User: What shape does this take?
Amino acid sequence: MTTGSTTTDASSSKLSLYEGSTQYRHWRFSAEQLAQARASLNATAVSAIGEKFEAGSSSGVSFLSADEEVLLVKFYLAKCSQLCIHLGFPEEVEATAMTYLKRFYLKNTVMDFHPKDIMLTAVFLATKTTNHPVSLESYAQRIPKTQPSDILGHEFLVAQSLGFDFAVWHAHRALWGLWLDVQNLPDVNMDELRNVYESAVQHVRAARLTDVELIYTPSQISLTSFALASPALAAAWARSKIPTEPEPRVLAVIEPIKQMIASQGAPPEVEAVRAVDRRLRLCKNPEKVVGSNAYMKKQEETERKAEEKRKRKAAEVQKAMEDADPFGSPLARDTNLDDDDDDDD
Amino acid sequence: MDAVEKANTERQKRWAKDKKVGEGTYAVVYKGREIATGRKVAIKKIKVGQFKDGLDMSAIREVKFLRELKHQNVIELLDVFSSKTNLNLVLEFLDTDLELVIKDRSLVFLPADIKSWMAMTFRGLEFCHRNFILHRDLKPNNLLIASDGQLKIADFGLARDFADPGYKMTCQVITRWYRPPELLFGCRYYSTAVDIWSVGCIFAELMLRTPYLPGESDMDQLKTIFRALGTPTEEDWPGHTKLPDYVPVGQFPRTPLRELFTAATPDCLNLLSKCLIYEPRRRIGAKEALNHPYFFAHPYPSHPSKLPKPAIKNTLPLEEVDGNVDLSGPGPAVKANPPNKLKRKHSSDDLNGRSIARKLDFTQHTGDR
Ligand SMILES: Nc1ncnc2c1ncn2[C@@H]1O[C@H](COP(=O)(O)OP(=O)(O)OP(=O)(O)O)[C@@H](O)[C@H]1O
Assistant: This one.
């Protein structure tokens, strides 16, 4: 919590808590870094997928641009939120799943993995990482045309793409702390304050559709949301925290966040999304399209490698039996044979 | 190959598995090393495929919390990678745990040693609590000891965060002997005080060299606690008779701690008694405990490197095996799991190493009988 810490005492230990977090260390970027990362991810994907199309057949394909990918993901961020509300999941699950979805597409392209599938897995994983687990079966049952295996099939990929950084610091939590703190200001009207808080919560939710959490800290976002709801209260609070600054600098820091929330905080136009999704059908990675030639080829390749490995292992086992020394056998019987060790190279 | 998969392979290549060293409920633990530096590590392999709900909660909690926590007295998670459907946690390698230390009858504990272990436990715990994390399974066997004597809190499979005050939590946590009375009475809104009770039990166990409150069932656990510390009155613990699973288990008088802990100093008993206060809100906090006079009085805590430690069997010969294995191979090419001969790869060096290991293992086995 760098700016506008939500506790009265922004002690150095509090500071280092957030600064030691995986969120701070691995998932904070400048706007330029984000744009660049997405552009290069998109370029790599386009050339890699282009090669997978059968010779010549990719020439007419119009691949998605980085911006179009972002648009599609954003549409599913909004969907993700609706799904969580529909299923009655706590806000913690919803916010976490949305963070996961955003982070996932900093490492993967929608042309490999469709966000509608990843969204379902992200939500399921978030129920677990936030300690609100549900059974896979009951979860899948409540989502049309979805089998448990569809969700589980991507779970490992999602966890891996997140670098196993499951813990997320959320702006809505920081806002809660800020709200408690603002109540200590002199002459606050509780009714008014409650309305301001309700409205700030809406701004925090809008912020989830944007990139702000990849650029700013949760406390900066919460203060921004508060300032959008009541500039006067936010300024009064900031001045009470930093009495030496008549014009607290944090209020300037949050200006660009305000603009991002205002300009990007709404779900995208369905028509635009539909057009992108239609094109995605033609340009998605054929290796990931079940039943396509490229998919079959990839499957065969995987199967062939597995078969080779099995043969190699069998030969090794054979050799080991022939070589077995006198000390080996009694011990082998003594300890349970660790059969599960053959699956990790 | 996808970028994510590639990154994973890169990570995997940094580590080699050498030898199976243990097995928990949901994982197999290997000794291994960092290929580049030779640094010893423990690789905890969690099989994911076997769970019908996917990645299981213990694994998720362990990864989630250890990714965030870096402290001298908390086990360090160095890396996470996957291999097929297994999740591999690369942890710092720790030689032993406090349970083995306590049980080793050949070791003599000085009061300064106990003070040192307690200080390290409280330091690690204070850090967890400061990060809003409850451990919920503290016991001697989850306090691991590094080769330099540092104590490390491990096993975060039951941990949770408590940033949400007033959120209902399960009371089915903490191994029975270390479980506080509020959980035994079914309290669902609890706090850092639950971990402190466990630490109190461990403190007592370090002095007694045997578990302090070894109940035989949940019901018997309450009786065991009350027999030792007296049945709480309404004044000791306001409102406890209203807890969900409250049952009267009999009236036992309070006996002064010094009758059992005859050699302990007054400071020591004072801190112990503050860890074992019935009313959770009055129980001492980790930070407050660290400032307790006990830690500032003579004798000062032993330096970690001077603490008693069980002799480690096999260390030397296994190091030799390590020296013999193929260091150039990627990842887990070396699976030095001596009893499991069928799974080993076969370079000639490797075979030599294996037979050494197996012979030694063999003598050790017979020696145990
Ligand atoms: N960091 C480590 N360094 C060295 N050995 C370890 C390490 N972690 C675990 N081990 C060994 O592996 C064994 C299994 O550990 P694990 O944490 O999986 O389970 P556990 O705590 O013993 O049991 P449970 O899973 O039931 O809680 C331990 O008993 C210990 O011998």
Observations:
- The first helix of chain A runs from residue 12 to 19.
